[in-house]
Amino acid sequence: MGQMNTLTQGMEAMAEYAMTANPDLAGPLALDPGAKAEFYEGYRRLSPIGHANSCRALIAMDHITAELPRLARHPVLLIGGDRDPSLPAMRVMHRKILGSKLVVLSPATHFANRDQPDAWNRTALDFLARCDRRRKGAA
Question: Residue 100: what are its φ and ψ, rounded to 5°?
Fold first, then answer.
């Protein structure tokens, strides 16, 4: 497939491209035929404009790395999977944002929230509860 344009080709075409171009998706989806339909459905719910803007943000990441330390004044939680191709980028973010928390779920891919939903939810809810306790303690 040539250049992908979600605005003209739609999210279903993007899902097809993602499934064939990303080896981290192709393997698991081949093993679980039901996951493919769920994957398509997930992409159909996405906004093409939102997806395009997410891609633009990823492209800009190299330019904002220097700004990451400024986030240290806020609670920051990074949750990734041990098989997530973006885990190295998360590790960089974690190092640059002092006080941030990085949790790596295993086994999990880029879709750690789907691969390990209970662990992901527990991690996020525990983090938010700690933030809430700190906020109430500071008030």
Answer: -70, 160
Report d(CA 5, CA 11) in Å as an integer: 9
Query: What letter does residue 131 receive in the DSSP assignment?
Result: H
Buried b (16+ CB within 10 A) or exposed e, 6-29: beeeebebbbbbbbeeeebbeebb
In a domain, 33, yes or no: no
What's the token pair of residue 68?
A: 């990451």
Give which of 75, 128, 120 is closest to 97, Cα–Cα: 75
Q: Is the pLDDT of residue 57 over 90?
A: no
Higher model confidence: residue 59 or residue 67? 67
Burial class (CB in 10 A: 0-12, 13-18, 19+), 35: middle
What predicted TM-score, i.e. pTM, was given to this entire model?
0.66
Range of 139's domain? 67-139
| 47 occurs within a structural domain | no
- ∠ CA 43-45-51 to the nearest 5 degrees? 60
